Automatic annotation (TrEMBL), chain A:
PANTHER family: METALLOPROTEASE TLDD, PROTEASOME SUBUNIT BETA TYPE-1. CDD domains: proteasome_beta_type_1. It comes from Carassius auratus (Goldfish). This is Proteasome subunit beta. Residues 1-22 are annotated as: Disordered. It is found in: Cytoplasm; Nucleus. One of its GO terms (cellular component) is nucleus. Non-catalytic component of the proteasome, a multicatalytic proteinase complex which is characterized by its ability to cleave peptides with Arg, Phe, Tyr, Leu, and Glu adjacent to the leaving group at neutral or slightly basic pH. The proteasome has an ATP-dependent proteolytic activity.
From TrEMBL, chain B:
Residues 235-271 form the Proteasome beta subunit C-terminal domain. CDD domains: proteasome_beta_type_7. Belongs to the peptidase T1B family. This is Proteasome subunit beta. It comes from Carassius auratus.
Length: 279, 277
């Protein structure tokens, strides 16, 4: 005979019939204990019943649905710009969750080859796994084909990797920046399931909606008339990226702490770190 | 007799005429797959402590709408009476209107009694109003002041419970601020030390909580004097941009232009400066 686990409120009034049956079939002293317990159970059942004999509901005792989400949002903004003979990939270095900051020094740019850098923002767990997978695939390609992957090839490969997880996606917003085979700057932007296109400039991550229109105006010369459309120089592009992140840090709570810019030219990859607001 | 008029049901205040219309609008918007605008919350770190001569209240100055900063320099320390001030966290409109309503009622009450208002009175009025609305008014307050019985500090929760304590913190950054208080609070501190402690507590909230930021406002209340220090400390300055983003005349394309002269007479002219920081 077992008492219900939640302390007796779901005691059924017909169980007492079963108890008396047990009493008649078991041995001597056990029967006495059972008779005492039955009396106690009947006392509990009297308290648990209302005036008309029906059960009073004190609390919900049954299955409760809990939701577990496999994703978290860790914030961060990424930006890439392609120039005539250079490419820039910039990201802030704040890693957050909810209203807290996990780290003030977690850059989102990852160097893949001498001519390609990828920026990943979104769920940090998936960013780390994805970059590990990309680095492994880069090694495999180099060993089989005896050459490094070009930026365009990496972009195409990333698209297939992401679509491979179409039904449980990597929660990552990717932007690849690098030099193409002719030495010109290239930017490839992705969505979480692998759709991509080549761009001149792209912002991704938490402050992307604030930055993209500004870039459209300053680099794409949109919504402006009577302006001289000069191609972007490297110094002007770096200055623009710094200014744009300063503004994003003002209004987006997930962006701040520091800005890391990777400048990719045929000489190699140079890094610049600029402090941002820490609040 | 005047007290009776204060206790009478106000014709003004909350009106619920739009509730049915809002419910219908919300259903329509949701059908289109959009969401209705959310009330702006203040994120916030607010705190207060009692020191030797009075009370120090502190607050940050960031107001957020979701995870975007809506106001970089909003004022969260509200006036209740000349000797009583109140910091507010939670829904911005609720803290603003609640403190204004109680401030107005307290002034009428004070005129009726012929005495300066007491902090306990403001506390009683606030908690009775918030309890009446069963937590639907999202205002979490830190009420502090000095009256004939000395300095007092209360924390008031949206459902109407209050605590009378020597040091309190509220808001999303309250844990960060309370950590600093629990480390360094002592009874009967001097004014400079108390101001420094409150400043450091708010700074902890500003730097470690994403819902709080920008500057630190302080309000020091003593027997005869109130020091409203806004800003007391500009903990975060806006980054300096190197580029020039001004546009020449003619950059925005003009499609058509129609000029209609209006023959008006200038009667009065007043200039109000905008906060462009």
């Amino acid at each position: 005979m077992t008492l219900p686990a939640d302390g007796g409120t779901s005691f059924r009034s017909d169980a007492s019939a079963q108890e008396t049956q047990d009493l008649s079939t078991s041995g001597g002293h056990i029967a006495v204990i059972q008779r005492v317990l039955v009396r106690q159970l009947k006392m509990i059942s009297a308290q648990a019943c209302g005036a008309n004999g029906k059960m009073k509901d004190y609390h919900y005792s049954g299955p409760v649905e809990h939701k577990f989400s496999p994703y978290a949002f860790n914030g961060g903004t990424v930006l890439a710009v392609a120039g005539e003979d250079f490419a820039l990939v910039a990201s802030d270095t704040r890693l957050s969750e909810g209203y807290s900051i996990h780290s003030r020094d977690s850059p989102k740019c990852y160097k893949l080859t001498d001519t390609t850098v990828i920026g990943c923002s979104g769920f940090h767990g998936d960013c780390l796994t994805l970059t590990k997978i990309i680095e492994a695939r880069l090694k495999m390609y180099k060993h089989s084909n005896n050459k490094s992957m070009t930026s365009g090839a990496i972009a195409a490969m990333l698209s297939t990797i992401l679509y491979g997880r179409r039904f449980f996606p990597y929660y990552v917003y990717n932007i690849i920046g690098g030099l193409d085979e002719e030495g010109r700057g290239a930017v490839y932007s992705f969505d979480p399931v692998g759709s991509y296109q080549r761009d001149t400039y792209k912002a991704g991550g938490s402050a992307s909606a604030m930055l993209q229109p500004l870039l459209d105006n300053q680099i794409g010369f949109k919504n402006m008339e009577n302006v001289e459309q000069v191609p972007l120089s490297q110094e002007k592009a770096v200055q623009l990226v710094k200014d744009v992140f300063i503004s994003a840090a003002e209004r987006d709570v997930y962006t701040g702490d520091a800005l890391k810019i990777c400048i990719i030219t045929k000489e190699g990859i140079r890094e610049e770190i600029v402090p941002l607001r820490k609040d | 007799m005047a007290t009776v008029s204060v206790c009478q049901y106000h014709r003004g205040g909350f009106s619920f005429e739009n509730c049915k219309r809002n419910a219908l609008l919300e259903a329509d918007i949701n059908k289109l797959g959009l969401s209705s605008p959310a009330a702006r919350k203040t994120g916030t770190t607010i705190c207060g402590l009692v020191y030797k001569d009075g009370v120090v209240l502190g607050a940050d100055t960031r107001a957020t709408e979701g995870m975007v900063v809506a106001d970089k320099n909003c004022s969260k320390i509200h006036y209740i009476s000349p000797n009583v001030y109140c910091c507010g966290a939670g829904t911005a409109a609720d803290t603003e209107m609640t403190t204004q309503i109680i401030s107005s009622n307290l002034e009428l009450h004070s005129l009726s009694t012929g005495r300066p208002p007491r902090v306990a009175t403001a506390n009683r009025m606030l908690k009775q109003m918030l309890f009446r609305y069963q937590g639907y008014i999202g205002a979490a307050l830190v009420l502090g002041g000095v009256d004939c019985n000395g300095p007092h500090l209360y924390s008031i929760y949206p459902h109407g419970s209050t605590d009378k304590l020597p040091y309190v913190t509220m808001g999303s950054g309250s844990l960060a601020a309370m950590a600093v208080f629990e480390d360094r609070y002592r009874p009967n501190m001097e004014e400079e030390e108390a101001k420094r402690l409150v400043r450091d507590a708010i700074a902890a909230g500003i730097f470690n909580d994403l819902g709080s930021g920008s500057n630190i406002d302080l309000c020091v209340i003593t027997k005869g004097k109130v020091d409203y220090l806004r800003p007391h400390d500009m903990a975060n300055k806006k980054g300096v941009r190197t580029g020039n983003y001004r546009y020449k005349h003619g950059t925005t394309g003009v499609l058509t232009k129609t000029v209609t002269p209006l023959n008006l007479e200038v009667v009065e002219e007043s200039v109000q400066t905008m906060d462009t920081s």
